[in-house]
Amino acid sequence: KPGDRDDRTSEKVKVFLRIRPLTDSEREKGEEQGCVMVQDEETLLLKAPQESQNMRAAERGVSQSIHKFSFSKIFGPETTQQQFYEDTMKKMVADVLKGENRLLYTYGVTNSGKTYTIQGSGRETGLLPRALVSLFR
C-alpha cells in the first residue's frame, strides 16, 4: 500500500538532510543545536529558539513553536563523507552506468556545508570525487 517503507525505494525524488556539526568558533561562542531535534531517521522537529519572535507568537497562541519536516533520510553531524556517499550517491552512480538519468541538487544557506559535502576537504573527499572514482573503476 502507498506509504509503506518498501515504496520509499521507488521514490522519484529523494530528499536527504545532512546536519553539519558546529564549528570550533560556533562552540566557543556557546552556540548549540538545541532547536534541531531528530525524531527518527526521516523526521525532523524544529523548535523556535526561546527568545525568538516565533516563540513569542506561539506563547500568544498565534503560531506553533515546533515545526515538523519529513525527509527520505536524515544524517546527523557524526556522519562521515563515506557514509553519506554510500547512502545517497552510490546507487545513483550505478544507475547512471545502466543508462539512467540522475540529478544531484544541493540546497542550503551560506556556510551550511554544501561545498564540503560535494567537493570535500583534504583527505575527506566529497560526493563528486567519490562518484568519479566509482565511475572509472
Fraction of residues in helix = 25-40%
Mean pLDDT across residues? 85
Strand order of the largest sheet: 2-3-4
- Please give the domain count: 2
Q: What general form does the structure show?
A: globular
Largest sheet: 3 strands, antiparallel
H/E element string? EHEEHEEHHHEEH
Structural class: alpha+beta
Quaternary organization:
single chain
Task: Classify the beta-strand content into a percent band.
Answer: 15-25%
Total helices: the number is 6
Low-confidence stretches: none
Q: Over the alpha carbons, how many angstroms does the gyration radius reach?
A: 18 Å
Beta-strand segment tally:
7
Distance N terminus to C terminus? Answer: 38 Å
Subcellular location: Cytoplasm, Cytoskeleton, Spindle
Keywords: ATP-binding, Coiled coil, Cytoplasm, Cytoskeleton, Motor protein, Nucleotide-binding, Phosphoprotein
Pfam families: Kinesin (PF00225)
GO cellular component, one term: spindle microtubule
Walkthrough of the structure:
- The chain has 137 residues and is an alpha+beta fold.
- It folds into 2 domains: 12-77, no CATH class; 80-136, no CATH class.
- The chain is built from 6 helices and 7 strands; from the N terminus they run βαββαββαααββα.
- The chain has helices spanning 24-28, 53-59, 81-88, 90-97, 114-118, 127-136, and strands spanning 16-18, 36-40, 43-47, 66-70, 73-75, 120-121, 124-125.
- It has a 3-stranded antiparallel β-sheet, with no helix packed on it. It has a two-stranded parallel ribbon with strand order 1-5. It has a two-stranded antiparallel ribbon with strand order 6-7.
- β2 (36-40) and β3 (43-47) form a beta hairpin.
- The radius of gyration is 18 Å and the shape is globular.
- The model has no long low-confidence stretch (mean pLDDT 85).
